[in-house]
């Protein structure tokens, strides 16, 4: 039986988050609520704080002010194992230990479910098998991770998060290194996790058209602040694209999905915008 998180969903939100690196303000008084059961895409130009927000929501980074709250509890005070049963994170860059196979790495996603009285079980084995199958890695299960291509390794890390079976799945640029076919397969997989499994998905995405097609909720950021959030159809306007990306573009209807589609008209409106 596949994992079903519907009875365990919790509200995840950031409250007045401020995070600095040296003298640089990365997140500046940011407040947002991640809708339960939604597919949220975090978008914006390079260096705007997208990945920092994701890492703060998962407690990898600690804010200098404000807090992240999960079901009314500050995650800073939650036991690590308890938090790992609720939030699964795929970071932007990860490295597997030398000699570790695909199946062994994906099995690491089951560690939060282990304990002194609960060791490896048939349920764990089934979760790993489902994750390998969902990401098209079953035939590569015995291969060493470091022998794989960049796109294959990316799918291994996604599989690890899937095997963790958490109500919240957070992914930082999950389509990096993937060709267009595997990008679409992965986005469809995330959509299925969200729509059929009921998992809350939050992904940092660079492809704005891809975000519009698959996400049900969007957070648009610039310079550490949220410029707009809501349904992609409401968020993605010509003015928003100009304000956030400094780009002059037409917004038309995607002929396949009917979602907003961004068609650039030319170069940057503001050459001082982050690249």
From TrEMBL:
EC number assigned by the record: 3.6.3.34
Pfam hit, one: ABC_tran
UniProt membrane topology term: Peripheral membrane protein
GO molecular-function terms, A-Z: ATP binding; ATP hydrolysis activity
GO terms (BP aspect): iron ion transport
This protein's UniProt keywords: ATP-binding, Cell membrane, Hydrolase, Ion transport, Iron, Iron transport, Membrane, Nucleotide-binding, Plasmid, Transport
Entry GO CC: plasma membrane
Main localization category: membrane
Keyword Ion transport on entry: yes
The protein, known as: ABC-type cobalamin/Fe3+-siderophore transport system, ATPase component
Gene: viuC
């Amino acid at each position: 039986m596949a994992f079903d998180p519907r009875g365990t969903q919790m509200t995840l939100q950031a409250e007045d988050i401020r995070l600095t690196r040296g003298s640089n303000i990365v997140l500046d008084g940011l407040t947002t609520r991640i809708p339960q059961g939604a597919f949220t895409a975090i978008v914006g130009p390079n260096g705007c704080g997208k990945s920092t927000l994701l890492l703060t929501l998962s407690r990898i980074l600690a804010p200098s002010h404000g807090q992240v709250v999960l079901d009314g509890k500050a995650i800073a005070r939650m036991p690590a194992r308890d938090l790992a049963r609720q939030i699964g994170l795929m970071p932007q860059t990860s490295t597997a230990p030398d000699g570790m196979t695909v199946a062994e790495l994906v099995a690491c996603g089951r560690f939060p479910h282990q304990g002194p009285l609960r060791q490896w079980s048939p349920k764990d084995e089934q979760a790993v098998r489902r994750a390998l199958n969902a990401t098209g890695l079953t035939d590569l299960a015995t291969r060493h991770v470091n022998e794989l291509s960049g796109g294959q390794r990316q799918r291994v890390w996604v599989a690890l998060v899937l095997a963790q079976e958490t109500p919240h799945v957070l992914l930082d640029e999950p389509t990096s290194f993937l060709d267009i076919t595997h990008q679409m397969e992965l986005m469809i997989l995330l959509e299925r996790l969200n729509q059929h499994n009921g998992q809350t998905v939050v992904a940092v995405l660079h492809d704005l058209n891809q975000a519009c097609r698959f996400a049900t909720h969007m957070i648009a950021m610039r310079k550490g602040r949220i410029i707009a959030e809501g349904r992609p159809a409401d968020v993605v306007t010509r003015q928003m694209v100009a304000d956030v990306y400094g780009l002059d573009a037409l917004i038309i209807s995607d002929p396949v999905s009917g979602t907003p589609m961004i068609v650039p008209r030319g170069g940057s409106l503001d050459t001082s915008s982050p690249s």
